[in-house]
Automatic annotation (TrEMBL), chains A, B:
One of its GO terms (cellular component) is membrane. Its EC number is 2.4.1.-. The chain crosses the membrane at residues 36-54. This is Glycosyltransferase family 92 protein. Keywords: Glycosyltransferase, Membrane, Transferase, Transmembrane, Transmembrane helix. The lineage of its organism: Eukaryota, Viridiplantae, Streptophyta, Embryophyta, Tracheophyta.
Length: 515, 515
């Protein structure tokens, strides 16, 4: 019934050529293939029924079926004729005859055996962001998984390597994977999972290519009757792809910045200042990976472009992750993807935000400090919180031309407050990472970095498009809004040389950047 | 690859006739239908692709596809040959060629456009337990839905009535449904939903039959790109099925008990005592609906059987709900199903547990009390907490033959403690219900029932198979484990007449029941 009705309605509503085209294609293809189609789908279900008597170890992949669904894309092309028929929502694509609903049954002893009929799907089992080789026999897969699955059940993961050629020395082999949940307690519909697959022997050692598959099992999480396993390709190595010297050779960069998800109406001027400052700080052997979750709008892209062209910045467009409701634009997934993607590209990897400025006190350089910390896999960095509206009377009349870290010079010195720390790691020894530190590291972590390295934090300045200076002061100490502040011109004193550095590197092209 | 391998392995492992039969059927049907099948599934996906250019209002039902999956049942028939091939888990049923994984792309400006590939399903969208007519134009559908869907998104429900005959006066019509979440904050993977569908006019008023469909939309909960709507039949009325006088006539029963989910190793003797006591209390125009979530084992069934045969007890086997991880054996779903299923069968409906005994103080009867409360849609009932191990010295040597409410005579009289209340309702004015009271009622609720009706609570006695008496006392007051108790023989004094009543009703057949 539903089928014929909706075809008729579609035919009756032809109002433009595109609609006509769609309708006739659909009708022709439906008319021609319908019989074939229903027959074949009946066969599928019959075969499925046959497999009822196969053993329970036998698992079924829902992902292939779902793929048909996921190809129904987000296209918003509107066809008016369909919208005019609200009482009969067509269910497409043409499906097999509707499922015969299981009914309650009354047993001989009068007991009513109730049945529960499940429909549809409310969450994916797994969503991949990236999969990376971590050595001759190990891989990391970064993605999202259904959160209640991990809270109330114990989903398991297994990896399988399938060689491209089928020569005898290259057999398929599997390993049970180790899962890490770096945002534990934070996810929404989805939570972040880092799957570590370490095989007992080298994989693709002949460099003849192959594929890594992840098998993600629900362990009965959504339905205790089924341990549904979805198996899907996560990595494809072509012959000659891998370069094992990578894992032991000196990395391309000394310092790589992994940014968290950027979103909202970011200030182009603040981003301009931040990148110029940090390229100068970290120097030639540094790189910055920026993740655009919607925050890199046209004007922000303008200030990044010159540095992208010089090779200092890589911009990752991660807007698609917004489809999946995790914590804070899935920032925990993003930093873990960055960790594994660039693991062998850098000696040190930094995790902090674009309203934060790393600073090494004088007499030291970033190199001398990090060399002294090279025994540690991880160190954390103390925060210098800066007020985001107190400026200097000396800047009166021209503060709007000053840079943010130049004019915001009052440091919060309230004691006894636990302040967030940021951190850096030597990524080759890290398996998963967080936002404020990593809990999955091999090797030592130190927090004793006071006096060696710290960061100035200009909270609330990056997502604001108007002038931050609100109060102009000419004092060295002040109690403002019940908080003690002192004048600290450390960053202000660097502004001139950062501006000069920017001009040397990319010229004056950003001079008209707006707040 | 996967396909041919697994067939070969299956063929090679033929060890018994059943196995052989399965293998050959699978192989023949696969060989014959494979080409047809793959072709047809390609057509499905092609049609799906075509619908990319249809408007976004256009929704897709995943439930039909999932049906193929859910028919892969829990059968544990074991076929050894398959278990011996751990490295190649077959993914069945034969699926269309594997999805071409979408790959990251590098844009002209150097930006890396990351893609996120989702797989599988971790939870159903909706699971039905029951759907009931609530009047000429209204229905209630009771089920479970994915909890994060309701916490982080706003799934919507719509109902559609499709008449059986297609005469002009009987057209299909729809209504937006009102959803109630009676266990809000308690669910796990799933949360309980009561969907109220009230149409603007009478439905099936000619009594010519039809079907009620529920359309459950995810509103982008698991994937913001898709508002997936699952549409499924929830109620089927055959011609002549409905009796509209039911809604206004005097109900069959005065008192109906809706029990919560029973599970665990319940004491048959305690259940025997409970049912005899309450049949006597509520009398001939009463009925008891017991929900077996696994607690009604063989011995418990024995003590219920005589009362089932007399028509006092209906046993609902709800063990299947254990498949779906909600709160406490999905008790909130169960009581709501009971409410709507028996809504027109009874004047009053009671919700309490099988370790609780309703009591009406002397000079009143259950009828006189409830008549005096008939202006209220709902009233709650005060608890008398009874100690579950203090007994009387007088029972020394024969306490094991006494009934539970006969020998447990010490009442907890600690003041200032908020104790759970239980409740009763006039169900025709109630739309959804909880465990301790209902929050979706029309009409008044009263809690001022002290002295009129109360319940004795023998906590911790029902799921214990050994003798409860642990301490024998001959005092009228005692402080035990830092709690004050007083002797209260109200229930003890009724034991003799309850035993006599049981014997009159069903004879001595339960006299050998064990604790």
């Amino acid at each position: 019934m539903g089928k014929e009705r909706s075809e008729k309605e579609r035919g009756g509503g032809e109002q433009n050529k595109r609609n006509l085209f769609v309708s006739s294609v659909v009708m022709n293809s439906c008319a021609a293939e319908l019989k074939l189609l229903l027959t074949a789908l009946l066969v599928v279900c019959s075969i499925a029924t046959l497999f009822q008597i196969l053993p329970s170890r036998f698992t079924i992949s829902a992902s292939d079926l779902r793929f048909c669904i996921s190809r129904i894309s987000t296209s918003n092309t509107s066809i008016a004729s369909l919208n005019s028929t609200p009482t009969s929502t067509p269910t497409m694509p043409p499906s097999p005859s509707p499922p015969s609903i299981r009914k309650d049954q009354v047993a001989d002893n009068g007991v009513i055996k109730r049945v529960f009929n499940p429909y549809g799907s409310a969450a994916y089992n797994f969503i991949t962001m990236g999969a990376y080789r971590g050595g001759p026999n190990t891989f990391a897969i970064i993605g999202l998984a259904s959160k209640p699955l991990h809270v109330y059940s114990k989903p398991t993961y297994q990896c399988e390597w399938v060689p491209q050629s089928s020569s005898a020395s290259n057999s398929t082999f599997s390993t049970v994977a180790y899962k890490m949940l770096p945002d534990w307690g934070y996810g929404h519909v989805y939570t972040v999972v880092v799957v570590n697959c370490t095989f007992s022997e080298a994989v693709n050692s002949e460099n003849s290519g192959g594929k890594l598959f992840l098998e993600a099992s629900t362990s009965g999480g959504g339905d205790k009757d089924f341990n549904i396993t979805d198996r899907f390709e996560v990595l494809n190595e072509s012959p000659g792809d891998i370069n094992t010297t990578l894992f032991s050779s000196k990395p391309k960069y000394d310092y790589l910045y992994c940014g968290s998800s950027l979103y909202g109406g970011l200030s182009p001027q603040r981003v301009r200042e931040w990148i110029a400052y940090h390229v100068r700080l970290f120097g030639e052997r540094s790189h910055f990976v920026i993740h655009d979750a919607g925050g890199v709008h046209e004007e922000v892209l303008e200030v990044l472009k010159p540095w992208m062209e010089l090779g200092y910045v890589t911009l990752q467009d991660i807007k698609e992750q917004e489809r999946f409701d995790g914590y804070y634009h899935n920032q925990f997934m993003v930093v873990n993807d960055c960790l594994h993607r660039y693991k062998f590209m850098t000696k040190w990897m930094f995790f902090f935000d674009v309203d934060e400025y790393i600073h090494v006190p004088q007499k030291n350089t970033i190199k001398s400090v990090l060399d002294s910390l090279s025994d540690y896999t991880q160190f954390t960095i103390e925060q210098m919180p800066m007020n985001n509206k107190l400026c200097l009377s000396a800047d009166y009349g021209r503060y709007y031309r000053k840079w943010g870290f130049e004019k915001l010079v009052y440091k919060d010195v309230k004691r006894g407050i636990r302040r967030d720390r940021k951190y850096a790691i030597q990524p080759r020894n890290v398996f998963a990472t967080g936002v404020h530190m990593s809990q999955n590291v091999a090797g030592k972590t130190t927090h004793k970095t006071e006096g060696m390295i710290r960061y100035f934090h200009y909270h609330g300045t990056i997502a604001q498009r108007r002038e931050p200076c609100r109060n102009l002061l000419n004092v060295t100490e002040i109690n403002f809004e019940n908080n003690p502040y002192v004048l600290d011109t450390t960053m202000r004193d660097l502004a001139w040389s950062v501006k000069k550095f920017e001009n040397q590197m990319i010229g004056p092209k950003l001079k008209n950047t707006r707040q």
